[in-house]
Structure formats: structure tokens, C-alpha cells
Amino acid sequence: MYSVILTELGISVFNDKKFEKAFPFSNSVKEYLSVKNKEAKLNELINYLASIQRVVTVSDESLLVILKKYSIDCQIMDTTELETIQTTKPQIIVDSGFASNLQDTLGKLREFALEYSSSIVTEVSQSPDLHIIQAINSLDEIDKIANALSSRLREWYGLHFPELDNIIDSINGYAQIVMAGKRESLTKQVFEEAGFPETKVEMLSLISSKSRGGDISDVNLAIVQSIAKQILDFHDLRKKLEEHVESEMISIAPNLSAILGSAVGARLLGRAGSLKKMASMPASTIQVLGAEKALFRSLKTGSQPPKHGLLFQHAMVHSAPRWQRGKIARAVAAKAVIAARVDVYGEGLNHTLLEKLNIRVDEIGKKYENPTEKDIRKPQLFGRGGGNFRDDRRERRDDRGSRYSRDDRGGRRDDRGSRYSRDDRGSGRDDRGGRRDDRGSRYSRDDRGGRDDRGGRDDRGGRDDRGGRDDRGGRDDRGGRDDRGGRSEDRGSRDDGERNDRKYKGRSDSRKRNKFGRR
Known about the structure:
By secondary structure, the protein is mostly helical. Helices cover 59% and strands 5% of the residues. It folds into 4 domains: 2-125, Nucleotidyltransferase, domain 5, CATH 3.30.420.220; 131-243, Helix Hairpins, CATH 1.10.287; 269-376, Serum Albumin, Chain A, Domain 1; 429-516, no CATH class. The longest helix is centred in the middle third of the chain and has 35 residues, at 218-252. The protein is elongated.
């Protein structure tokens, strides 16, 4: 049986695993991509296979589609044959004459891989929907910059003409008045050229003559006018970007533009990444694009999930009553996915999508004309079952008998006899007679009269009055260390004179013994 194998350097024909004929690529990357995109015209190969008049097996599905267009009887290879071809491809390239040996094959395949990757990057960068994404992102950034500059302009020029801020809301109109200069030079013609109606022109003329603002120097006025000029330039650039986005959306994604509008469709494209990625998304994902933070917060805390993201900017969703917005957003997202898929495969404008969407929105408006009891009830935020997490935790700890619930047991670890259970011994150190009174610790100051009654460390010569370590063999109250096999007189411990000569060392040794009970 004849088999046709597609390689990176050309196409080979084998008959019962014996080489028959080769069709090399002149430009390997370009022709290989044309075969993969099912756009190649393989006239020599088709004429050769037509002359054989046999059933052939093909190693690539794209090549199979091309051959079937020209009525070549062919079928795809099975999985085992395809795996064998992948493992022996370098040897197939050598047998077909595309390379002289295996080392030459590896070198040519490496060059092919580098050229192929660069061509893919070039192809992706040329995608027109990516340019739409950059344009709509630029438009949003221009809005942010213009708003920041306009607030600064109003504050600065408001020192000279404060009454103007409360009358004019338009950023463009305010900047045009600033460009005219000081308030003394503002005439009716300036206000009319800025596009204000006659009633507001008369009001502005009257207020400018009675303004209580201070004077502004020519240097400061020049800087303020430069800011106003930047705002006007941004306004003109924004208009151009809007027209560009609208024209590109109509030419590249006409169905998506008809369903969502140019601006909302372009912003959703930016969130999705590309038109192809958006076409592969489910409608539920598109519905909440732009509300990812609220979505994951609802998954984490159990609060209600968002009903819409960027789709809230759509006219149908924005103008609908609150209890209908989620249903309308779901319908719009479903039609938007279909529109994106139609645009990806280039089927042209489909007018029925918008008609069906309008019918569905009308049905939702009639069916849910009045809110239900569920819609009226306020949503319970940040809790599963409407509870407070801190109260729930406290209840769980009380049920478990946590060590931090002090009211029931009168202190921490009271039932376990911990050193923190203060009720049995009384609160404070005076009532207890010092720390660890029951255990005879070195801190039980009441029985020993404190450190002054013991003669201090200097009078005792390093705790000689208490018998030191030689007499007690450690600690007197607890039996010392003589009974436990600790240091004793029989073991030749240090005497009182040695402790007096070495106070500091004895002091440090005593601390270590008192703290840890052993060295």
C-alpha cells in the first residue's frame, strides 16, 4: 500500500515501506504552513497519485483534506503507524533525500524550528483584533489621564475664577474657557464658541464680572493654559480612537459589534485576549468578565456571585430594572458567544442574532415585570447562612471547650491543672506567695522572705545560707539532688569557700539549675 508522509522539509511517497518519490519544499516553513492551513496547491503530488490509481494512506489530516478535494482515494493512518513515523522521521528524511545524513537532518530541523517559531510570532502579531484591544485600552487610559488633568485644571484655575467650577460640567468646555485667558477677557463670543446656550452665556458673563477669585500671574496662566491645551488634544485623540475602534469592529467582528456595540465588544475582547479565545469561552464566563474579583470572593466567602461584569455597560443591561439585569446579561452573553464564533469563521453579518436577542429581552421584561420576594430580600454578604464568622468561631470553641474560654473555667487550662489556672491559687503573686509556690520554686518569695531575707546574693556568698549545693545537693524543698543521684557531698561538690571565691560563676550556675532543673 502506498503511503504519503508529510515532513518539515517535504512530502515523501512510500510503497510497502520502500521509498518511491519525494516532493521537496523550496521554502520549507512557508509551504509547510500552507499545507497545515489547507491552502497548498500540490499539483505534482496530485498528478503522481492520480496516475497510480491506488488507495493511499496519509500521515496528516490537513494533507488528507487537500487530496480529497482533488478526488484522490486516501485515508488517514492508524495510531501505531503515526507513532512509528514520529520516531523514525529523521531516517525518513534521509531516505527521501531531503538531507545527506542524520547530523545534517538535525541541523535542518533546528533551522526549520527557529523559522517556524518566528513566523508564528509574526502571524499572531499581525492579528487585527489585537490592534483593536490596544486601541480600546488606549482610549480608557486617555480618559483616566484627562480626568486627572481636568481636576487639577479646575483647582488651579478655580483660584482665579471659582464660580466657573459649579456652572460648567463639561471638561472640554471648561478647557476652552481657560484657553481664552483671564476672567476679564471672557466675552460672550468666547462662551458661544465653547458651545454653551444663550441662557448660560448670560449667566457666565454676569458671574465673570462679579467673581471673588484672586488675580493670576501671566506665568501661572501660561502653565494652566498648557494643561487645558493637553486636555483638548486628548479630547480630539479620543474621538479618533472611537472612530477607529468602531470601524475596525465592524470590519473584523460585525456580529459581535451588532450584539454588544463597538466599545463594549472591544473591551470584552481585551479581557478575553483575542477574538478566537472569546469564541472558545462559555457564555457564563463572558457574562462575568470584568468581575473576577467579586466572583472569587463569592466562591471563598459564600456571598452572592456577580450577575454581570463589563456587560453592565451594555444599554439593555444598564437600563433594565435591578431584578432583571442578571437574566438579560445571561441572554446577551449567550448571543455574544454565538456572534464571536460566527465572526471567527468569517460567515458575515447575521441579522437574526440581534432580532432573537431583542425578542428574548422583551420576554424577560414581560415575565419579570415585578420583583419577586427573593429579589426584594437583601443579599447576605460574606457569610454562609448569614452568620458572622467570628461569632461562629466563638460558638465552636465554646462547644469544644477551648482553652481560651475563661469565664466557664476561671482561667486557661484550669481543668488540666495548668500553671495559668489562677482561681485555685488566687490572683497575683502576693496571694500565691510567688510563682510556683506549691512546687517550692526558687521564686516563692514569701516562704523565704524574699531575696533580702536570704541575705541577698552577696551576703550569702552565692546561696551559702541555704546550704548551697553541697548541703542540699541541689534544692532543699524538693529533696535536693542527693536522693536523685545528683551532685552531693559524697561526689566531692564544691564547698562554701569555693563558692565565695567564685560568686559570679556560682550565680550563673544557680540560675541555670533553678531555671531548667538540670544543666
